[in-house]
Amino acid sequence: MSKHSIFLRIYAGLVILVVLVALFGYLLVQIINYQRAQEYRESLTDGISYVISEGVARQQTEQQKADWISDASDLLELPIHYVDASKVELSRTETKRIENQKAVVRYDAEHSMAYLVLGIRDDPKHYLYIKVGVPNDRQMRALPVFIMDYLVYYPGQEQEYLKKIQEHFSYPIGIENVSSLNLDPEQLGRLRSDQTVTLWRDGATERGTTISIVSPLPNSVSDVLVIGPVPMFNWMPVKLAAGITLLSMFLLCLGVYGLIVPMQRKLKLVNDALDVMKTGDMSHRVPVEGHDELASLATSYNSMSDHIQRLIEAQRELMRAVSHELRTPVARIRFGMEMLADEDDYDYRLQQVEMIDKDIEALNTLIDEIMTYAKLEQGTPSLDFEKIILVDLLDQVAVETEALKTQKEIYLSPLSHDVVVEAERRYLHRVVQNLVGNAIRYCDDRVNISGGIDLVTNMAYICVEDDGPGIPEEDRKRIFEAFARLDDSRTRASGGYGLGLSIVSRIAFWFGGTIEVDQSPELGGARFKMSWPAQVKRKTK
């Protein structure tokens, strides 16, 4: 398959798009999950951090604060430091969180460690600095202690103050009746023994697995403090997965659209050109862009249009020329027949019959020329290429021409028998014959014939020169057109029909070569040179 194949480009483009979209989706999920995980950590710590900072703020002296922090550190089994605020560098976002009485969470993924910075009410010069690893069961059981330590200052107003601090928690906290919790006997027994109970719930809802902490209240038999349910972090929730999938499909569709649109546009250009062709306008051409199959299609269309246009023009010119060329011999035959009817002299009648015979022969020659030209013009002729010793063919034409007693000197340049070319013998003979015949008609005394192979370009060539008047430069392209005559009266006197050089031009075309005419540097007249590949590949254009 060609490296420029539009389909290969589409398939490769689709694979690349899928890989890029998958990579984009993966990176997007990682970025979103990182942000979600950070927000989840902050949401878990904001409430309890507020309660801890409030506990520190209630202490009257520095020593009391230090003692309270030490007790909290032992309870949580976490190092809690009371640090100078000037020693902690905070970003703009972190500073704003501190001002809003929220915790700053800095997570070290490499060591699975989180560092919490907590502000203290009425003490902007100090922060609480807590180093937290993987949370354990003891730490979760200690959370109700800090909440109840906060509530102990508001006896009888627990519900009211729980609602007040609820805004700092992302999960519910409240005092509920133990009978509404659907606990088993073992859990109820632990509550009666003043132990905290941790409840795990697996759900099929969007929240998934949740955890709740139930702790008995002092001086209460039926009421308990319930923290939660707190949803566990879900790395790929349904909405996120659906959103990423839809976004990825959208990007993939955009990519496929970007691959298909250029091809659709190129096909539309070809289709529009065909619609124009249906109207009979053969002048429209399709722009060729790139090197793929669609560019090849545009090139083929343009070549087809050129060929059809050339055929139509050639057919029109042929019809006009044929009708013109046939009139003269037909008129002479008609005149001769009328003379035969009115003439009794036998010798004169015989003379008229000979003249009629010459006119009929001229008609046969003209018809043969027309048929040859039409065959070469209409399409690819049947060509049988073979190896030809070039000097033998040139010598054959020279001998045949001398036999016509033209009284002209024909000179064949020396050429080795080792020079072998590939060509259709019949048509190559016709080329040399037409060129030499044309030179004989217009030369004064001499015609030169030569040929060979250009070793640089590997192009074979034949060359015919004469010492006649030559061809003006402005007329050198026109002489290869069908029925073209530069000097109509002289051409008619010489017996030409203006098809010989047209036939030579078409043969050169089907040989994959060219025919050129210029001035002979040696004889001063016209020089015709046809070149074609020494090893011919049949032309299928």
UniProtKB/TrEMBL annotation:
UniProt-listed Enzyme Commission number(s): 2.7.13.3
Gene Ontology molecular-function annotations: ATP binding; phosphorelay sensor kinase activity
Main location: membrane
GO cellular component terms attached to this protein's record: plasma membrane
Membrane-topology descriptor: Multi-pass membrane protein
The HAMP domain, residue ranges: 263-313
Reactions listed under catalytic activity: ATP + protein L-histidine = ADP + protein N-phospho-L-histidine
Coiled-coil positions: none
TM stretches of this protein: 6-29, 240-260
Places the protein is found: Cell membrane
CDD domains, A to Z: HAMP, HisKA
One Pfam match: HAMP
Residue ranges constituting the Histidine kinase domain according to the UniProt record: 321-536
Alphabetically ordered keywords of this record: ATP-binding, Cell membrane, Kinase, Membrane, Nucleotide-binding, Phosphoprotein, Transferase, Transmembrane, Transmembrane helix
Record-linked PROSITE patterns: HAMP, HIS_KIN
Record's protein name: histidine kinase
Gene designation: bfmS
